[in-house]
Design brief:
The complex is a heterodimer of chains A (274) and B (528). With 274 residues, chain A is of the alpha+beta class. Chain A has helices at 44-62, 85-94, 110-123, 135-143, 168-171, 174-182, 248-251, 254-266; strands at residues 14-17, 23-26, 153-154, 157-158, 194-198, 204-211, 215-220, 225-229, 235-239. Helix content of chain A is 30%, strand content 15%. In chain A, the strands form three sheets. Chain A has a five-stranded antiparallel β-sheet with strand order 8-7-6-5-9, with no helix packed on it. A two-stranded antiparallel ribbon of chain A has the order 1-2. In chain A, helix 2 packs across helix 3 (110-123), helix 4 (135-143) packs across helix 8 (254-266) and helix 6 packs across helix 8 (254-266). With 528 residues, chain B is mostly beta strands. Chain B has two helices and 38 strands. In chain B, strand 13 (194-199) and strand 14 (205-210) form a beta hairpin. The longest helix of chain B has 15 residues, at 3-17. The chains are: A alpha+beta (274), B mainly beta (528).
Chain lengths: 274, 528
């Protein structure tokens, strides 16, 4: 979508894969802001226009009000990309490598991206009230009683079955993290869906991996790797359901959940120290 | 025969095999050794009489050669096969002639696309057309180019429309008599769609059919105010042709702006329609609009396949289409009369189709500011991917994306050459779509079988007298299914996403199959 003010930044082409997920692939060079301050900052028209652009492209991850989801909460007014308008512009334009954040330079004009920056700024409630949990206690829970490290890596240590969490505090909103801990099946990325293969001898193998029309690859909880022709199996299925236990709400007290969340939110990767 | 005469006969035979005549195109179905036009025959069947590779032998199918194009981007081409060569196009104005025996490059064509090109969906190209010793293709900047099939030399190039205004071109042209029929793309940029015919020898434009009815023209009343001026209706997939009726059948795309219907009140003719045009004049014989006043980008450019069939006891010259809106349609191709329609995937936007073929629309499902969930999603249903009709099984084969999406809308002003869709769609993360290959009984719109896929496929179809259906998927699998039952019989991991249809032909008397996968073209034949 273009709002029709200027030509796109440096983007030449975008390939919109219209069938399946909103996946954007760009053949363009990186696009960077030419000024550190948003020339449209505070402009009501720009904010409205940015909101219009935000809704279809950004809400799947950041939520309809910017409250976050798979993507960070934008209402807190704290951005992992940096504090300057140009930092936000550059992330919108080019994405964040290694994360789900795609770049939109091929779809938005430069003016559009500044409008989105204006809209994102307008969302900020600057709610910096500290989290109620105890980070240190949460860390202890993560590596001990909670059993989280059996499946999740933080800073190079832990199991590999679940998503890496070393910078999860930058990538997910607090609300999303709480939901993920208490109801892990609420939003499961396909690569973490449960895959079950039943061999012809009745042995069942459960884990994560890849399922296509003819083969299946599974890594189970013990870290064993399997690859089968599906026709050699009694059955093979993928369910959009997490392997993560869904009983943390009963296993941990409410205060312990807050502690755990405080620890998760603090995990911001190497960039957090810059 | 005297040596001189014999030599002359050989030369003539070689010459004949190296060129394509109008008669050959009319009789393309009976020549299994070649693949001369986009849909194999004028009717768009993509069916081959070859049966060496069949349900019993397909297990011995193996790669023969692979040609790496080294050109990035999706390859959606239908290769043409004649004269011992394979002619295919790639994305970004690339094209190749390959030796059929080895895959070695004979010649290579490239023209750099203009900088700053605004386009919807990649610099793709879907193939050549051929007549005489010429090849014809569109270039992405909305030109039509003629190449010498022997050398790849450019013979002429004509601008179809101004790419700076958002016009592009991606579809394979269609040769009808001495004319090159070509469509355009760019409905997402407020263009006015058209179907053109050009003289094969000179490149001079012979006729143009505008797919958007202007004010004062028949159908112009279906556009509010001057909204027709940016009405879209592009024509980016190759149509079909009935030589007996001398009619060209061509599908048209979405109106502009795609998701804000308020600025273009009315049915918006002739968007999302099938138009039947006189091949000599381009005059409209009839039209059928599948999705009046579309707000979900459900183009009707899917293959219009021509089948003579019995419907409710009547023998009918029909045209059938698996439309992107989720319904499968059959029409009388002599007059456009509606025969029947039925859903082939989950549909929430309409409760059915009335007796005249008009959808019974569920109110309140237009795109909205906060997103409206609608099934199917923006891509359909079935999208442009080539279909196949087997006269052996009397089934039509196509793939479907089964799922829903959120449709968003906002107000947008028109600026020439700029994106003009007034918003877009988004996936629902908790509801990833699945895919299906369907075998449809075209006489009644009832699927005969489904082959369920883990995810939607963009691959095209090929059916053969060997009782096989060939297709590919997004994970790179090239596969053969039993055309009668849908049972998978063979598959091969190509290593690249398949977004193209397979073709089949003879090489030294042996059946071959070719398909583009990833950035390569590969061929297959039976191992001893």
């Amino acid at each position: 979508m273009r709002l029709g003010l200027t030509a796109a930044c440096t983007g030449r082409y975008s390939l919109r894969l219209l069938l399946r997920y909103l996946v954007l692939i760009f053949a363009s060079a990186a696009c960077f802001a030419q000024t550190s301050q948003n020339p449209l900052a505070g402009d009501p028209g720009a904010i409205a226009g940015g909101g219009a652009a935000f809704r279809p492209y950004c809400t799947p991850c950041h939520g309809i009000r910017g409250e976050g989801g798979r993507g960070p909460d934008l209402t807190r007014g704290v951005y992992s990309a940096g504090e300057k308008d140009s930092d936000l512009f550059n992330v919108i334009a080019n994405g964040v490598p290694g994360t789900d954040m795609a770049g939109f330079a091929g779809d938005f004009s430069e003016q559009d991206m500044w409008r989105v920056v204006a809209f994102v700024r307008s969302l900020a409630r600057r709610d910096m009230s500290p989290l109620s949990g105890d980070r240190a206690a949460g860390e202890k829970l993560f590596w001990g009683k909670g059993g989280c490290s059996a499946c999740h890596v933080v800073n190079g240590e832990g199991g590999a079955l679940g998503p890496k969490l070393s910078r999860i505090g930058r990538e997910r909103s607090l609300a999303f993290l709480r939901e993920s801990v208490l109801t892990p099946n609420a939003d499961v990325k396909p690569e973490y869906a449960t895959i079950t293969a039943v061999r012809r001898d009745g042995v069942k193998i459960v884990g994560i991996g890849s399922l296509d029309n003819f083969t299946v690859q599974i890594t189970d909880a013990a870290g064993n790797y399997y690859s089968f022709e599906r026709s050699d199996l009694a059955s093979s299925t993928r369910e959009l359901k997490s392997l993560m236990p869904d009983n943390y709400g009963r296993m941990l007290a409410a205060a312990e959940i807050d502690d755990l969340l405080a620890y998760l939110v603090s995990l911001r990767g190497a960039e957090a120290t810059q | 025969m005297k040596p001189v005469a014999a030599g002359l006969a050989l030369i003539l035979a070689a010459f004949a095999a190296s060129t394509v005549t109008e008669q050959q195109l009319r009789e393309a179905q009976s020549d299994s050794a070649t693949w001369l036009t986009y849909g194999k025959n004028y009717l768009g069947w993509r069916y081959s009489e070859l049966s060496e590779i069949n349900t019993q032998t397909v297990s011995r199918l193996a790669p023969r050669w692979i040609h790496q194009t080294s050109v990035s981007g999706a390859h959606e081409t239908t290769p043409l096969i004649f004269g011992g060569r394979m002619f295919l196009t790639g994305p970004s104005n690339n094209a190749y002639a390959l030796d059929l025996l080895t895959g070695k490059e004979i010649w290579y064509y490239h023209k750099a696309p203009p900088a700053g090109l605004n386009l919807c969906c990649g610099e793709v190209n879907r193939g050549f057309a051929a007549l005489g010793d010429k090849l014809f293709k569109v270039n992405i900047e909305a030109t039509l180019v003629a190449l010498d099939a022997r050398s790849g030399t450019v013979l002429w190039e004509r601008q179809m429309a101004d790419h700076k205004k958002g016009y592009t071109a991606t579809g394979a042209p269609l040769v009808v008599k001495n004319k090159i029929i070509a469509g355009m793309a760019g409905a997402e940029f407020g263009t006015r769609g058209f179907i053109d015919a050009y003289d094969a020898s000179t490149g001079a434009r012979v006729w143009r059919f505008n797919t958007i009815a202007a004010k004062g023209e028949p159908g112009g009343e279906t556009w509010a105010g001057d909204s027709w001026q940016h009405g879209g209706g592009s024509t980016w997939v190759t149509g079909t042709y009935d030589p007996e009726l001398n009619l060209i059948y061509w599908g048209t795309a979405n109106p502009g702006p795609g998701m804000d219907g308020d600025v273009r009140a009315g049915d918006n003719l002739y968007t999302n329609s099938l138009v039947a045009l006189d091949a000599d004049t381009g005059k409209l014989k009839w039209y059928f609009q599948f999705t009046p006043h579309d707000t979900h980008d459900w183009d009707a450019v899917e293959d219009p396949v021509l089948i003579d069939m019995v419907v409710q006891g009547r023998k009918i010259k029909a045209v059938v289409q698996a439309n992107r809106n989720g319904f499968f349609y059959a029409l009388d191709r002599t007059n456009g009369q509606f025969l029947h329609a039925s859903p082939y995937t989950k549909i929430t936007w309409a409760t059915g189709i009335d007796a005249k073929g008009r959808p019974i629309v569920v109110p309140g499902l237009d795109p909205s500011e906060n997103g409206t969930k609608v099934c199917p999603g923006l891509g359909g249903g079935h999208h442009w991917y080539p279909t196949s009709y087997s006269p052996q099984t009397q089934l039509l084969y196509f793939n479907s994306t089964d799922g829903c999406q959120l449709f968003y809308r906002n107000k947008q002003d028109f600026h020439e050459g700029q994106w003009y869709q007034a918003s877009t769609e988004a996936a629902i993360p908790s509801e990833p779509p699945t895919g299906t290959v369907l075998a449809m009984d075209p006489t009644n719109g009832r699927p005969r079988w489904h082959f369920e896929m883990v995810s939607p496929s963009d691959g095209g179809m090929l059916s053969t007298a060997g009782g096989l259906l060939f297709t590919g998927d997004g994970q790179g699998y090239f596969m053969a299914l039993d055309a009668k039952t849908g049972k998978p019989l063979w598959h091969f991991q190509t290593g690249g996403e398949i977004r193209a249809p397979p073709v089949t032909y003879l090489l030294n008397g042996k059946q071959q199959i070719a398909i583009a996968a990833g950035t390569s073209i590969m061929t297959f034949a039976l191992m001893p």
